[in-house]
Amino acid sequence: MVVLLFTSLFVGCKSGGSKAPKEDLKLDVPKDNAAVYQDIKQAEKIFNALPSPLESAMLIKSAGARFDETLLNSVSNMNGYVTNKSMALNLGIYTCDLSFASLYEQTQLIIDYMNAAKKMADGLGILKAIEQSTIDKLEENINNSEVIMEIVSETFMNSSSYLEDNGQPAVAAMVLVGGWFEGLYISTQLVDMKDFNGNKLVGRIIDQKLSIDILISLLNSSKGNPAVDELIVQVQKLKVVFDKIKISTSAVRPEFDKTSNTTVLKSEVKTDMTPEVFKELSATVAEIRNTFVKK
Amino acid sequence: MRIFRIIPVLAILIIATTVDGNAQCKAFAKKICLPELGSYTHDGNYHAAILVEGEEAELYKTFYSDMDYRVAICGEDKLPNVEFKILDSNKNVLYSNKDANYAKTWDFKLQSSQQLKLIVKVSAFNKPGDTPASGCVAIMFGFKMKK
Question: What percent of chain A is modeled with pLDDT above 90?
Fold first, then answer.
């Protein structure tokens, strides 16, 4: 009975999201998003879900952006990452680069970046995240984009679940942060200022403002960890720039589409980002990302 | 003195059960919940927790207008029904699976990108005196580029 009680208490606090403190939970939330977090104290578990590296890469592709290998973090840097922080951030970064290469069918780069991600995962002691058999399967299916996406998704899930389940949520958060920054870095670098107005990729970059509070909440749940505290300072700097972008959305109206058996969430959005704010955002992202990839 | 012999044994049992529970949860997410995404590509993120009946979890995520999404929320068989609701930033309920016979999946797309909130709640069996049921609940997202 005692064992059951203790076990229930321990297990109830683990697995994935963070446990919400019962009292005095402080979140850094801007006024326009405050309503979303109002009931946060009531939940037993909170998950702050950033876009995964695969989703970030997919957003870039869906905006019609071109592929540019020079924007990726070179795999030649991988031996220089020796701290848990740099390996975690670069596991996210290399996974995003791997996803980007996969979506643009860059066969040799896919193998190279999977090996770089494996090196980071092995360095973090993540058992069985990326095994040699996974690399072999990747090579065998190098021209099958569907299988490659499945492998990328599975290896990323293996890493994040291992870290969450083994009491390393701070490392898991840093992996996500690395991937998110890499997606944002690649996006901002791919924008051609001559084609700024009406650029679909600019729209996707503006959308990232919606995730900045989720990112801060995710990091706040591991506050006190020195590596995470450093990241919070950097992310706060980025938030200051994102706060200069205005987004206003009408009420969301769900409408069911019988033909596709899908609900369409209808709403109108107005955004406002000047080229000057974009340049500031782009420079801030590059500055932070460069501290992540620096050996 | 006997207590000093019992505590380490208890600690080992607790740790062993916890690790086993987590591994079980991951296996459940991969084997049972992942297939629910069907033709959608899993985003690779892992959100799973062991919940006791009556417990609630929340998830915050931004969804983009260029994607078609499927959310799959699965609870182990030993749990009662798992209810989930999707809310917008004004706390309006956009979907509740209670209205769809506790369906495990919901397909949706957005006209404009939004940050949404998911509330997942394990119902209660409502049997006073029984030990509350507990089990793994997994939340998974799949996406496709809009055609």
Answer: 80
Residue B79 structural domain: 2-145
- A204–chain B Cβ distance below 8 A for any pair: yes
- Closest CA in chain A for residue B133: A8
pLDDT in tens, B80-95: 999 999 999 999 999 9
- Model pTM greater than 0.90? no
- The total domain count for chain B is 1
How buried is B129 (Cβ within 10 angstroms: 0-12 exposed, 13-18 middle, 19+ buried)? exposed
Average pLDDT over every residue of A30-57? 69
CB pairs < 8 Å spanning A and B = 227
The verdict on a CB contact (< 8 Å) between B51 and A44 is yes
Is B66 part of the contact surface with chain A (CB cutoff 8 Å)? Answer: yes
Domain residue spans in chain A? 49-243+274-293
Strands A269-272 and B41-42: unpaired
pLDDT for residue A30 is more than 50: no
Question: What is the nearest CA distance from B39 to chain A, expressed in angstroms?
Answer: 10
The CATH number of whichever domain residue B100 belongs to comes to: 2.60.120.380
DSSP letter, residue B4:
H
pLDDT for residue B8: 52
User: Is B19 in CB contact (< 8 Å) with chain A?
Assistant: yes
Between CA B67 and CA B60 the distance in angstroms is 17
Rounded Cα–Cα distance for residues B83 and A192 (Å) = 45
Chain A partners within 8 Å of B115 (Cβ): 33, 36, 210-211, 213-214
What is the pLDDT at residue B3? Answer: 55
The pLDDT of residue A32 is above 50: no
Q: How many distinct helices (H) and strands (E) make up chain A?
A: 12, 6
Of A51, A261, A267, the CB nearest to B107: A261
The widest CA-to-CA distance across chain B, in whole angstroms, is: 70
Give A249's contacts in chain B (Cβ within 8 Å).
Answer: 89, 112, 114
Cα–Cα dist A96/A180, whole Å: 8
Asked if the Cβ–Cβ distance from B46 to A164 is below 8 Å, we say yes
Amino acid at A226: P
